[in-house]
Amino acid sequence: MTDSSSFPSFLFVCTGNICRSPLAELAMRREAEQRGLMVDIDSAGTGNWHEGDRPDPRARATARRHGLDGNQLRARQVRTVDFDRFDHIIALDRSHLAALKKLQPAGSKAHVSLLLDHVSGRQGDDVVDPYYGPEESFETTWRDVEAGCKALAARFLDRPSTC
């Protein structure tokens, strides 16, 4: 069994863990895979409304259009133990960031941030929740999470080689 503490870890958090955070999890898995890296990546929601459910069918369809399979993912709620398990806990909007900061235990190792704060020129922006919008809004969400994950990967996964 591999010790997950030996490689970087990321938890993506949205409201119900069925739209934005699963897409971010899949986008970050792709970034790590393209770099050939072992990375602990998961997603969760601030609420437990969809606990155990697969991502929204529209989110899964969006993932499929981008060559990814979200069928294996299941929604769960963020827990205080996540602040010790993950190096980076990434909120998809400012309401999630506020909720995470309230939940974060004193002295936890996790760095809590807003996803689009990692994208140049997007500091303070939220990834818009596509749940109540048309199916096309999932593509907008995909573009945002993909940009955020590319920026996170460039910052935290790309390391200069040492010879």
From TrEMBL:
Principal EC category: hydrolase
Region (Disordered): 43-68
Biased composition (Basic and acidic residues): 50-59
Pfam short name (any one): LMWPc
SMART domains to which the protein is assigned, alphabetical: LMWPc
Gene3D superfamilies the record matches: 3.40.50.2300
Alphabetically ordered keywords of this record: Hydrolase, Protein phosphatase
EC number annotated for this UniProt entry: 3.1.3.48
Record-annotated Phosphotyrosine protein phosphatase I domain positions: 8-155
Matches recorded under InterPro entries: LMW_PTPase, Ptyr_pPase, Ptyr_pPase_sf, Tyr_phospatase_low_mol_wt
Family: Belongs to the low molecular weight phosphotyrosine protein phosphatase family.
Name this polypeptide is given: protein-tyrosine-phosphatase
